[in-house]
Amino acid sequence: MTGEHQEPRDSREPLDVARLQRRLAEFAAARHWQPYHTPKNLVAALSVEASELVEIFQWLTPEESARVMSDPDTAHRVRDEVADVLAYLLQLCEVLGIDPLAALDAKIDRNERRFPAPE
Asked: CB of 50 within 8 A of CB of 85?
């Protein structure tokens, strides 16, 4: 990601969190953005992007919100905002040294103990 033309990603190549985090880090480094990617700034950006996702759904009825992906323009906006939220979350995890998948797995374990399924 050095400013030269990037070929489209080979869709057969599997995606994984670590590779996406590397791509995000390379993107930021090529633009000299690392000094701005502090935990505080990343959390603020994450909040802003999450709010932009909320904005899409803000005045929809529950039924309309369930069909949001059926409109191509709205679906595109939703995918973009989800990507922005995930990008900032992954960058925050990278900066803080958090394995997001391990954190989620541990949280699910705690929730299973805290909220046992009814018998």
From this structure: yes
C-beta pairs of 49-56 under 8 Å, 24+ apart in sequence: 49/81, 49/84, 49/85, 49/87, 49/88, 50/85, 52/81, 52/84, 53/78, 53/81, 53/82, 53/84, 53/85, 56/81
What pTM value is reported for the model?
0.84
Note the maximum CA span of the chain. Answer: 59
Q: What was the pLDDT predicted at 14?
A: 80
Q: How confident is the model at residue 13 (pLDDT cuts 50, 70, 90)?
A: confident
Look up tokens 């998948």; give the residue: 101
What is the C-alpha to C-alpha distance for residues 1 and 23, in angstroms, rounded to an integer? 8
What digits encode the pLDDT tens for the residues 47-91? 999 999 999 999 999 999 999 999 999 999 999 999 999 999 999
Q: Measured between alpha carbons, how far is 50 from 53 in angstroms, rounded to an integer? A: 5
